[in-house]
Task: inverse folding
């Protein structure tokens, strides 16, 4: 468990602390000074000696970052690609699968990320395939037993958002993986909110593809993300476009590289990757188990405080342990207005999610939008007090 002296040191090396109270870590967290320094140093080198030339002396550092990313997932470095965003990486992996055919089926969890759904919807529409929602258990989480009953020879893909963007639910990704392995169906996991927040093991989950963002709980820069692709799955995939890094031209056919770098851009943002590498190393040094323990304590306490406020309704799902994403609404005040007032009047950052983020779940629950306060290990009891007091004032004024 992280002690207060460690938290104090981590906060002191974060430039945003003291300027804002940040509860939007699930959107994008606050970078540390070492992350900023790594980015700035590489940009300076690029400006002074040329971007291509400045890449050469830091190539080993980029590969060290790949190794840290692999270790974070319990994977091999060859399974890791650095991509510009999680949605881009997920979409590239999906596009690399054999084309859909009429009558084929894609099964998704009810909390599937909106960008993934849009990608699937477009492909299914072109092919005459269908997207179907896996039934939920009573607590709103994915029902792996229901999935088992749904699978037949027409199912081409199962896709799950592990930690949904609109609340504290943690789906049982491993239970889904046991079903997909038994049936031999490809399994994609969106771990955008999981990386840097909870322990991740691709072996335990049993997924073939997993993506996650660098900017969220890992506290890396925007424009960085990780894509894991299992080696056995790569043998069945053809990346939708290639470059001189991903493949070598030959007169007969391109020779596509066998590792996950086949999914990378040929022109990588080296400065951002060095920043991500610094963030990955820091997360591993702190320890994901310690991070998870502190986030669990703080987010559970925040839920308890918000639940006591008249006019505030918690909107989280799940009977089990929750993630650090605390969703709620304030009676009579639109979610965007709550977010705006917290920022303008109290210098507190939170998120406000509409239907587009998790459309199937929001529609099923009859929700137009939720306020999302996401907790990091950086947050403190005093900041919980400040947020709860501000929400109480907004609710009282609305009532």
Result:
């Amino acid at each position: 468990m992280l002690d207060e002296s460690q938290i104090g040191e981590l906060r002191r090396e974060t430039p945003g602390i003291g300027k804002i109270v940040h509860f939007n870590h699930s959107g994008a967290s606050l970078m540390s000074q070492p992350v900023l320094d790594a980015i700035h140093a590489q940009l300076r080198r690029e400006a002074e000696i040329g971007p291509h030339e400045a890449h050469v002396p830091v190539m080993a550092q980029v590969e060290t970052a790949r190794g840290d990313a692999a270790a974070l997932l319990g994977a091999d470095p060859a399974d890791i690609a650095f991509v510009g965003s999680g949605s881009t990486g997920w979409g590239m992996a999906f596009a690399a699968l054999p084309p859909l055919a009429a009558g084929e089926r894609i099964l998704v969890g009810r909390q599937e990320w909106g960008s993934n759904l849009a990608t699937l919807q477009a492909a299914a529409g072109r092919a005459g395939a269908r997207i179907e929602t896996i039934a939920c258990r009573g607590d709103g989480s994915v029902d792996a037993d229901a999935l088992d009953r749904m699978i037949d020879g027409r199912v081409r893909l199962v896709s799950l958002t592990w930690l949904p963007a609109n609340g504290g639910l943690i789906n049982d990704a491993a239970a889904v993986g046991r079903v997909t392995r038994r049936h031999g169906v490809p399994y994609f996991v969106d771990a955008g909110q999981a990386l840097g927040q909870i322990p991740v093991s691709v072996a335990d989950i049993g997924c073939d593809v997993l993506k996650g963002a660098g900017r969220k709980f890992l506290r890396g820069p925007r424009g960085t993300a990780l894509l894991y692709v299992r080696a056995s799955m790569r043998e069945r995939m053809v990346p939708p476009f290639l470059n001189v890094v991903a493949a070598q031209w030959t007169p007969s056919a391109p020779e596509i590289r066998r590792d996950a770098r086949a999914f990378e851009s040929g022109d990588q943002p080296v400065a951002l990757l060095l920043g991500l590498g610094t963030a990955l190393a820091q997360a591993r040094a702190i320890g994901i188990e310690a991070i998870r323990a502190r986030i669990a304590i703080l987010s559970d306490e925040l839920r308890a405080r918000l639940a006591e406020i008249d006019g505030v309704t918690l909107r989280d799902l799940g009977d089990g342990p929750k993630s650090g994403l605390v969703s709620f609404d304030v009676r009579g005040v639109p979610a965007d207005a709550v977010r705006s007032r917290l920022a303008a009047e109290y210098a507190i950052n939170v998120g406000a999610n509409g239907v587009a983020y998790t459309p199937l779940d929001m529609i099923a629950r009859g929700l137009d939008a939720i306020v999302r306060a996401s907790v990091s290990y950086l947050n403190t009891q005093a900041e919980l007090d400040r947020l709860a007091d501000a929400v109480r004032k907004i609710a009282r004024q609305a009532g």
About this structure: DSSP finds 15 helices and 15 strands in the chain. The chain has two domains: 4-17+288-398, 35-285.
